[in-house]
Amino acid sequence: MSTRQLDKNAAARLRQVRNLTNLARTVFASKYKLSTNSLSAWENGTSPFSEEVAKHLADIFRKEGIKVSSHWIMTGEGPKPKALASRLIQGTDSLGIAISDEEELFWRATSSFKEFYKDCLVLIMHDDTALPFYRPGDHIGGKIITEDKILFIEDEPLIVELENGTIMLRYIEPTSKTGFYNLRAINQATIIVPIIKSMKIKRAARINWVFRR
Fold first, then answer.
1. Residues 91-101: pLDDT tens digits?
2. Alpha helices in 21-146 (DSSP H)
3. What residue ranges of the chain are covered by domains with CATH 2.10.109?
4. Is the dihedral of CA 19, 23, 27, 28 positive or negative?
5. Where in the chain are all domains bearing CATH 1.10.260.40?
6. Which of 96, 109, 172, 164 minimizes the C-alpha distance to 141?
7. 171: how many CB neighbours lie within 10 A of its CB?
8. CA 20 to 30 Å from 195, out of 29, 31, 46, 182?
9. What pLDDT digit, counting tens, does each position of 51-68 carry?
10. Nearest to 122 by CA among 207, 29, 27
């Protein structure tokens, strides 16, 4: 068995791929008979996972319609995660949906999510700020969290809405000024400003739904 290594970046990649399945951590773990505590520790970088674990998880992700290699999970090298063409819409279980109009498909999927979560934020990516995990055209949604929880979430990107109505996906960094945050892009090589400083957040949501072409 290969040596385990503690790697925060590998943990973040694992968490991001699991997010792409649209399954909450507890649901994902239960569905595939994994320990929720172990999965949580792997995703948060508090416990290392081996190459064998990464291979097992990559096989599971394929069953959920996400193609990713264990090598990419462990190192970040090679092809990035990709949704398989046969992937089903969230909430349809084993039933496929055949719709010729792609825009209608996206509209229906997004509308279903908004109907299920009344207090949510939905973002359509239009730039490169969230690469390699999210790309232009991806629809990303999340249930709004209370303001007191924002301060304790620094290891995962949030969908944030600013006072002027702008919605973006960013890591949150507290500042010395109460209620104001620095917003850091996932992709620090973005052509957009990678860090927006001292911004007031109106609402924020954790990602629990992704829909892509």
1. 333 333 343 45
2. 25-31, 36-44, 51-63, 70-75, 102-116
3. 102-211
4. negative
5. 8-83
6. 109
7. 18
8. 46
9. 999 999 999 999 888 889
10. 207
102-211: in CATH 2.10.109: yes
CA dihedral (163, 164, 166, 168) positive or negative: negative
- SS3 at position 85: coil
- CA pseudo-torsion sign 203, 207, 208, 213: positive
Predicted TM-score (pTM) of this structure:
0.54
C-beta atoms surrounding 70 within 10 Å? 19
CATH number of 8-83: 1.10.260.40
Sign, CA torsion 198/202/207/212: negative
Residue located via tokens 């508090």: 46
CA atoms of 152 and 44, how far apart (whole Å): 13
